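Troubleshooting: if your tokenizer reports a length mismatch, compare your output against this known-good record of 703 residues.
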Amino acid sequence: MQSRWSDADAREYRDRYGEWGEPLALRVYTSRLIGRDPDLVMHGGGNTSVKIRKETILGDTVDALCVKGSGWDLDSIEPPGLPALELEPLRALRRLSGLSDEEMVNQQRIRLFDSKSPNPSVETLLHAFLPHTFIDHTHADAILALTNQPNGEEMVREALGDDLVLVPYVMPGFALAKLAAELSEKSPAAPGMVLLKHGLFTFGDDARTSYERTIEIVDRAEAFLAGRARPVSVPGPVASVEEARTRAARVAPILRGLLATATPGADQPYRRMVLDYRVSEEILTALAEPSAASLAERGPLTPDHVIRTKANPVFVADLPVDQGEEAIRERLRTAIDEFRRRYDAYFATQVAAKKIERTKLDPDPRVILLPGIGVFCAGKSAKDARIASDLTEHTLRIKAQAERAGRYEALGDGDLFDMEYWSLEQAKLGKAAEKPLARQIALVTGAAGAIGVGVCLELAREGAHVVLTDIDPAGLEKARVRVAEIAGNAGCAAVTMDVTDPASVDAALDEACRVFGGVDIVVPNAGIAHVGSLVDTDPDRFDKVVDVNLGGYFHTMQSAARVLKAQATGGNIVVQASKNVFGPGADFGAYSASKAAGHQLGKVAAIELAPAGIRVNMINADAVFSEGETPSGLWNEIGADRAASKGIGADELQEHYRKRNLLHATISGAHVGRAVVFFASNQTPTTGATLPVDGGVAAAFPR
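Known-good structure output:
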């Protein structure tokens, strides 16, 4: 491990954050250096602090502690992410014999200089009780590989020498802060301390010293582990990444369906999970190692991971991927049911042993390890699932590293339960209401167009994760960027797809399964048009319109039904038909006929898919020329010809359509999107229905 300190970068931070003072500016700089190295910290792990002098509102200058605040990650922290607290009142708390977590949080908040600041780190008192100016705390992988051993203290001494303070595992909070301070005072010259099964603290009078002590100590740990590593041979050939990805697309929707749990609500009958899939040669090799199953059972690298990953994964070594869907389903069901049974027993045992009351969390696994396929992680959102995957990838590597150097050993169930059911975490339960389409995955075809992007935006606003598909890569990326402003980059994905090619459609659905685990809402929307009388229409052009508007809907619904049935949790298909289904126009035969056929296909699908709980409904929209900055590709192509067919100028066309509907409404892609949301959120027990979104065109009233 190498230091990334740069004098030039340090000067740039001094200049950028000069108004905050040099110590805090450099604290931000080295915090980011630490946070951007995944071998040191990941996803909110670790914390940093600096002690400064600060003026109170009365004009007194006092000692203050600036420490990482909740909700900030070290890799992107800003000065407000290091809220300042009055130091001496915090240090005075050390005189207490005990302090509850809730009262500790309260005492920290009332010592803040700014009441709007985020909650300071739960390890604030540890930073306060230590005398050092700069303190860096990391969950460095190499340190965890050393400490998560039966003889962890001995291995740390052998690897790192005797100049570091060693602290036995104590859960973060007041007790750990007192113990660490007492042990540190016995070795005042120590450059840092190792907390067994927890991480590393380093100290310094300046930012560079504290940071580079972290780097130097971790580098020594890495070198020691490399020197102690035993060779491991993997029995038999390991699957290729491409083979694994193919299998994953088949397995993902089955797995996602089994992870869903039934709810009493009719609107959303299942609480679903979003999946994240990871595969690489390193992952496949790690899962094929002889010790993989045993290591999976031996707990997380550090106890705070349990909140993201639970204590153990599901490890399925013998998934019958070549024996058909039902064989896969039954093997996964058995493994997941066993995990849930064991989790229930773990909860009951711990609350009885500790004589406490806790609200039981869901018993569902967060990590599923499948040799020959890879890693699936589950969360209530793609972000949560990706965090679990990041932690799991690191865990696989570091557990294997620790095992080669000795024998990996994690904390016991009692300590892990204390972290998972921490009162501070329990207090957060049920406080955040989920949006109507939270945990659901939507796939939209023709997403680069006005209707498509409008639908995607509205789905994202209601909490859905969105897979945008289109044949136009450039337009697709523009649409994805717009959706990402709402859903975040983790909450949406773009896949180039040709709806007239069944293989392309299947590949896009497979990718949706790999990215998010499956689909719940499918919107066949891609369409084209042609203006011309029946007599004058070129047969090839007619066939092309039918291929896209009817064939595309057929291929999309057929492939979507495959995935929805594999999940076995119902779902919604919302077909974008057209006002022309009931109100066709002259010189628009190819479009009107293909849309009417697609509409009829949707009705047939509603009949056939109802036994699987899959609802199929239709939307008849009219004259959507744009959605914000996104124009309609269809109208751009045919607008002039359609205006000529009606005997009006091209610049009069939009106003013509607006005036002809009863409400004189201009129809946007967002209007269509809200209609999709109505169906997708199951607000009525409806299938096979048609909802016009046209401002009221009497000739096109459904009948």
